[in-house]
Amino acid sequence: MKKAYRIKSNTDFQAVFKKGKSVANRQFVLYALEKKEQTHFRIGLSVSKKIGNAVTRNRIKRYIRQVFYELEDQVSHNQDFVIIARKPAADMDYHSVKKSLEHVLRLGKYLKKLKHR
């Protein structure tokens, strides 16, 4: 995923937390903030040390980035997203993570339906 698609600065994270809307399921909390001037979405990831060691945390972050890479055409483009992983995410494989994130994105209505060709 390109660097332009990531949220890195603390001020950006705080803006999404304060002004954004949140949706959650058991594995993830998703905060989203609409930015009209933005042409693509950006994601910020937060995976606490409570979830596991560095290997586990980095694997979860890789999975989340890959899901957003695959869903790029369906996700709302003028949004900043912050995803917080909860404890059950540590035991999930890639397909479970994808299913769970799709669920959260649908709950918040951030996922567009693709037209079948």
Automatic annotation (TrEMBL):
Quaternary structure and interacting proteins, as annotated: Consists of a catalytic RNA component (M1 or rnpB) and a protein subunit.
EC number: 3.1.26.5
GO MF, one example: ribonuclease P activity
Keyword Protein biosynthesis annotated: no
InterPro entries: Ribosomal_Su5_D2-typ_SF (IPR020568), Ribsml_uS5_D2-typ_fold_subgr (IPR014721), RNase_P (IPR000100), RNase_P_CS (IPR020539)
Top-level lineage group: Bacteria
Provenance organism: Siminovitchia sediminis
Gene: rnpA
Enzyme class of the recorded protein, top EC level: hydrolase
Protein name: Ribonuclease P protein component
Family designation: Belongs to the RnpA family.
Catalysed reaction, written as an equation: Endonucleolytic cleavage of RNA, removing 5'-extranucleotides from tRNA precursor
The entry's keywords: Endonuclease, Hydrolase, Nuclease, RNA-binding, tRNA processing
Pfam families in the cross-refs: Ribonuclease_P
HAMAP family according to UniProt: RNase_P
Function summary: RNaseP catalyzes the removal of the 5'-leader sequence from pre-tRNA to produce the mature 5'-terminus. It can also cleave other RNA substrates such as 4.5S RNA. The protein component plays an auxiliary but essential role in vivo by binding to the 5'-leader sequence and broadening the substrate specificity of the ribozyme.
Keyword Nuclease: yes
